[in-house]
Amino acid sequence: MTEPVVDSLVHARGLRKAYGEFEAVKGIDLDVRRGEAFGFLGPNGAGKSSTMRMIGAVSPPSGGVLRILGMDPVEHGPQIRGRLGVCPQDDTLDTELSVRENLTVYGRYFGLSRAECRERADELLDFVALSEKANERVEELSGGMKRRLTIARSLVSKPELLLLDEPTTGLDPQARHLLWDKLFRLKQSGVTLIITTHYMDEAEQLCDRLVVMDGGLIAAEGSPAELIRDYSTREVTELRFGPEVMASDHDALAGKVADLAHRVEVLPDRLLLYTDDGEKTVAAVHARGLQPAAVLVRRSTLEDVFLRLTGRTLVD
């Protein structure tokens, strides 16, 4: 068996998960190091959730090697789960209880005394900025407050490893940024984070390293900066043409500028030119007599990498 990376909290080699004849995870290798924020990106059906359930010791692997906190999740599931925190995609808070009671009751499941539960609840309510809401019913909270309370509840047992499944789905920008700040502070305190997200900016903000999964396999792995460097260019020039230019004409236009970029992507409403100097590319486009109706030069992002690796086709 391949030895885990030093200080690896999650070690997987050839990890597989099958449901009958369908293989959701097809043999992946990964190591999550202590103290980092590690992300899973991928379209629906890529295998992210199946992998997270195996890491959470609630779904046994179908093959390969998996070690969580140095233990086999099949043999030591309860011990592993006792040292994990899990923030599910959907809030599972008890709406009949108060905000504080959601934490104190949950703490009892981990064997904490009533005094420890009260102390821990006070600490966590302060951490997620909900102290003033402590005695209110959960159903009276906003969506962002509920997500913060769900994260607080996942921290009651002081976990070494926190699993977050789409932590900011459905939140407005202000609530998302507040949650990002809380997760960043958690990582600074030494908690290891594993995050699945559909938001590319979230992955760039939070993740030290990440994998892009597609079809049950890992398509790429690295830091956000490394992935952008390896799979995209420094800048992207977007060219939009007027309504008189039909979408069917974009292929011909792409042929006229193909040599000006490392790669040209043809979309129904615009051309994307992947280049290291966007302004220089724009000048060259104009020098060839082309007059786009609108031009945008932007830095390349993780979304460009994601779409290149997984495609733009909608996955149900």
Task: Sum this structure up briefly.
Helix content is about 35%, strand content about 25%. It has about 325 residues and is an alpha/beta fold.
What's the SSE blueprint?
Blueprint: E1 8-19, E2 22-33, E3 37-41, H1 48-55, E4 63-68, H2 77-81, E5 84-87, H3 99-109, H4 114-127, H5 143-154, E6 161-165, H6 173-188, E7 192-196, H7 200-206, E8 209-214, E9 217-222, H8 224-231, E10 235-240, H9 250-257, E11 263-266, E12 271-275, H10 278-287, E13 294-299, H11 302-310
Parallel strand pairs: 3-7, 3-8, 5-6, 6-7
Antiparallel strand pairs: 1-2, 1-4, 8-9, 10-12, 10-13, 11-12
Helix pairs in contact: 3-4, 8-11
Strand content: 25-35%
User: The biggest beta sheet, please?
Assistant: 6 strands, mixed
* Widest sheet: strand ordering: 5-6-7-3-8-9
CATH class type of the largest domain: Alpha Beta
Q: Tell me the structural class.
A: alpha/beta
Q: What Rg do the Cα atoms give?
A: 23 Å
The CATH superfamily name of the largest domain is P-loop containing nucleotide triphosphate hydrolases
Shape, principal axes of CA atoms: globular
Low-confidence stretches: none
Distance from N terminus to C terminus (CA atoms, Å) equals 37 Å
> How much is the average pLDDT?
92
DSSP strand tally:
13
Please report the number of helical segments: 11
According to CATH, the fold-level topology of the largest domain is: Rossmann fold
Domains, number: 2
- Give me the CATH architecture of the largest domain, please: 3-Layer(aba) Sandwich
* Element string (H = helix, E = strand): EEEHEHEHHHEHEHEEHEHEEHEH
Kindly state the percentage of residues in helix: 25-40%
Keywords: Antibiotic resistance, ATP-binding, Nucleotide-binding, Transport
Domain ABC transporter: 10-240
Family: Belongs to the ABC transporter superfamily.
Membrane topology: Peripheral membrane protein
